[in-house]
Amino acid sequence: MKKLIAFLLVLCASLTLFACGGEDPVTPEGYKLASNGEICSYDLYVPETWIVQSDRSDYTIAAVSSSDGCTVSVAKLEDVYAETMEQYWEECKAKFTFLSDFTVTEEGAQVSVGKDGRQGYRYRFSGKYNGTEYAYMQVFFFDSNAFTPGFFCYTYTATAAHFDTHLSLANDILSHFRFH
User: How many domains does one find in the chain?
Assistant: First the structure.
């Protein structure tokens, strides 16, 4: 009986120790969860030092700092009626009239998104807004979950002067993306 009680005490202590292991084992080292898991069907992880600017809807945005001008965001796109990615991109380009000197540098490159390697389509472009030149990378991809299917857009935005500085980090953030 004493051996049984001792065994149960050791078992309880072990379970308590391992159950309180701290951080979510999915969170990459040096990153934090930016998206709101109660609202979003995805997890967007950003470096711990970044500022999460919005996590109150199915749209998440985080910035390097309040003054850097570099952001990453994920949005679930609603009311998409295009039948092909090319058709949708043409619709998108028509909406970028707020950018002067709008220039597309890459259209529809197939890329891998997240840990599960789902296929995405990458577009890069630049333009001026209020006299400042910005560069953008957008990756469009699908969530094929039968219960919450969706079309999503990951956007990396930076001033043109800083775009290459943070590009590898923006790609790393995208590589850690995952759906629930």
Answer: 1
Q: Which of 8-22, 55-69, 94-108 has the highest mean pLDDT?
A: 94-108
| pLDDT tens per residue across span 145-164 | 655 568 899 999 999 999 99
Residue 146's closest CA among 122, 113, 179? 179
pLDDT at 157: 97
Q: How many CB atoms lie within 10 A of CB 128?
A: 15
Radius of gyration for the alpha carbons in the chain, expressed in angstroms and rounded: 21
Question: SS in 3 state form for the chain?
Answer: CHHHHHHHHHHHHHHHHHHCCCCCCCCCCCEEECCCCCCCCEECEEECCCEEEECCCCEEEEECCCCCCCEEEEEEECCCCCCCHHHHHHHHHHHHHHCEEEEEEEEEEEEEECCCCEEEEEEEEEEEECCEEEEEEEEEEEECCCCCCEEEEEEEEEECCCHHHHHHHHHHHHHCCEEC
Q: Is residue 9 part of a domain?
A: no
- Whichever domain contains 169, its CATH number is 3.40.1000.10
Q: How many CB atoms lie within 10 A of CB 159?
A: 15
pLDDT digits 0-9 by tens, 37-52: 888 888 999 999 999 9
